[in-house]
């Protein structure tokens, strides 16, 4: 019987990453939260900020997939045509809702892990995944700035919390 290392290099990654237990993933996530100085007030700020950015979600999602279409390095992972893009748009909307939910428990962490594994499985270059998240970050921050009703200091605190949260998603 051949080992998973005998196949394509991603076979090993797929097999090994799916073996990670949810408790281990969550412990790792908590350690990373500590590393970036994530605190309960960060989650509260994110939850509070959702109302200011949620109306921009459809525009952010459309921009996200339009940009994927512009680049052959990312376009190649879309193999199911417009129906797949529509499903992925729904998934990204759910991802954004979860991001701003204020709840970062084991279920959240497991789902984020699975999404990252799927990106590896389909052959998405890591640098494009990072660039795509940067594009979303910029869009979310722009939506916050345009719709914010509080003080500049409060906005800056929310932006720092959002940066920490998105950095945790990249980790």
Keywords:
about 170 residues; mainly alpha; 9 helices; about 0% strand; globular; disordered N terminus
Q: How would you portray this structure in words?
A:
The protein is mostly helical. It contains nine helices and no strands. The chain is globular and about 45 Å long.
- Rg to the nearest angstrom? 17 Å
In round numbers, the mean pLDDT is 89
Shape: globular
**Secondary-structure class:** mainly alpha
Q: What is the share of helical residues?
A: over 70%
Head-to-tail CA distance between termini:
34 Å
* Largest β-sheet summary: none
Question: Gist?
Answer:
The protein is mainly α and 171 residues long.
Helix-strand layout with pairing:
Layout lengths: L8 H9 L4 H14 L4 H14 L3 H14 L1 H4 L5 H19 L6 H16 L4 H22 L4 H19 L1
């Amino acid at each position: 019987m051949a080992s998973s290392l005998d196949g394509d290099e991603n076979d090993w990654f797929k097999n090994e990453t799916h073996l990670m237990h949810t408790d281990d993933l969550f412990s790792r996530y908590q350690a990373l939260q500590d590393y970036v100085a994530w605190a309960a007030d960060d989650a509260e700020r994110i939850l509070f900020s959702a109302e200011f950015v949620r109306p921009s979600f459809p525009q952010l999602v459309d921009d996200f997939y339009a940009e994927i279409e512009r680049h052959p390095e990312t376009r190649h992972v879309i193999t199911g045509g417009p129906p797949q893009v529509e499903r992925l748009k729904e998934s990204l909307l759910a991802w954004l809702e979860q991001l701003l939910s204020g709840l970062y428990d084991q279920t959240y962490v497991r789902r984020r892990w699975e999404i990252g594994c799927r990106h590896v499985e389909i052959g998405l270059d890591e640098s494009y995944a990072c660039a795509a998240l940067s594009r979303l970050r910029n869009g979310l921050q722009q939506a916050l700035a345009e719709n914010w009703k509080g003080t500049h200091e409060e906005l800056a605190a929310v932006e720092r919390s959002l940066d920490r949260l998105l950095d945790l998603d990249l980790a």
